Amino acid sequence: MGKSMDIVAVDIGGTHARFAIATIASDGGITLGEPTTLHTEDHASFQTAWEDYRERMGGNLPDGVAIAVAGPVKPDVIRFTNNPWIIRPPLIESKLGCSKSVIVNDFEAVAHAAARAPADEFVHLAGPDQDLPSRGTISVLGPGTGLGVAYFYRRPDDTYRVQATEGGHGDYAPVDAIEDAILARLRARHTRVSDERVVSGPAIVDIYHALAAMEGRAVKDASDIEIWTAGTDGSDSLAAAAVDRFCLALGSVAGNIALIQGATGVVIAGGLGYRIRDTITASGFASRFTAKGRFAGLMANIPVKLITHPQPGLLGAVAAFAQEHLGETSA
Questions:
Q1: d(CA 17, CA 38)
Q2: Where are the alpha helices (DSSP H) in 13-136?
Q3: How far out from the chain centre does Cα 42 lie?
Q4: What pLDDT, in 10s, does the model give residues 61-80?
């Protein structure tokens, strides 16, 4: 591809926007600089957040930008699923002062990162303890502010193709009486209950209160962060039960997505998954993943991994830029 180049990588979620300077080497390798994290609620728009980051970096930024966004990428206007910012792709280069850009869905970016990450940046969660297959479809999903879903397909010539999806918004399917109760609680407030109403960071609050109601217990209101903390440090048995129930639901949803996408491997991504990785492996996640009736044997042969790269959204956004502008398509 010639000489190396620097670009700005941006990963915009519901709560945070992360920025970093990235270098794409002449051999296609990607190096990320130290990321800067800004709170989306502290900035009126992406433009003002960009200007804040530019000022922090001394007033000058590279000429290219790769942006991962938490929501569908549309040609005219991008509206985020979980924050009020708006991006207009036709204006992005003129507004930011750059000549090359790429905008991808956040989990499209994570799928790019999973396709390029080495084997030592994955932790085994379930299925056979082996590397991800070198051919076929790999499903990628991750609970965070919402539930991101994508996949990538590895071709025989060692290149890959990524497909963004909105699979996190599929209908939630309970599989036992406890999940029926969780669904009933959610249905009282939402006309339709999607997977991300149960399998996402904020969803732990509804799971917690549904379990409390089943036991006739009065519990005080608590934030999702408080419940996650109490559920993983052992200080609250009900919160721990909610975390275990979350892991079960995550296993069910991951298995459904693998079946739908015809996956030969699955990658769980996101900071939440990484923080509770030990809980996931000790929970019923694996049994729920494989509990697909006549397809249980098929599911048991699918390796499920958790990606440990600290910034997969930023890495993947840069990989998408390299694929679009520099012809880099190898995994």
A1: 5
A2: 46-56, 92-96, 106-116
A3: 22
A4: 999 999 999 888 999 999 87
Helix axes 237-261, 224-233, angle to 10 degrees: 100
What tens digit of pLDDT does each residue of 309-324 get?
A: 989 999 999 999 999 9
- pTM (2 decimals)? 0.89
Query: What φ, ψ does residue 304 adopt, rounded to 5°?
Result: -115, 125
Burial of 241 (0-12, 13-18, 19+ CB in 10 A): middle
Distance CA 255, CA 88 (A): 35
pLDDT at residue number 72: 84
Pick the CATH number of 5-104 from 3.30.420.40, 1.10.1040.10, 3.40.50.300, 3.40.50.880: 3.30.420.40
Amino acid at 91: L
Spatial distance between the Cα atoms of 92 and 103, rounded to a whole number of angstroms: 9
Residue 319's nearest CA partner among 42, 83, 51, 66 is: 66
pLDDT tens-digit readout, 274-310: 899 999 999 999 999 999 999 999 999 999 999 999 8
Query: Which of the listed CATH numbers 1.50.10.140, 1.10.1740.10, 3.40.190.10, 3.40.367.20 matches domain 168-307?
Result: 3.40.367.20
Per-domain boundaries in the chain = 5-104, 168-307
Cα distance between residue 140 and residue 30, in whole Å: 21
DSSP assignments along 253-285, one per residue? HHHHHHHHHTEEEEEE-SHHHHHTHHHHHHTTH
What is the Cα–Cα distance from 228 to 234, expressed in whole angstroms? 10
Select from 147, 143, 154 the least CA-distant residue to 115: 154
Would you state the structure tokens that stand for residue 174, as one six-digit string? 């309970």
Confidence class for position 48, pLDDT limits 50, 70, 90:
very high
| Residue 178 Rama label (left phi>0; alpha psi -120 to 50; beta) | alpha
Q: How much is the average pLDDT of 108-124?
A: 94
Whether 266 and 303 have beta carbons less than 8 Å apart is answered as yes
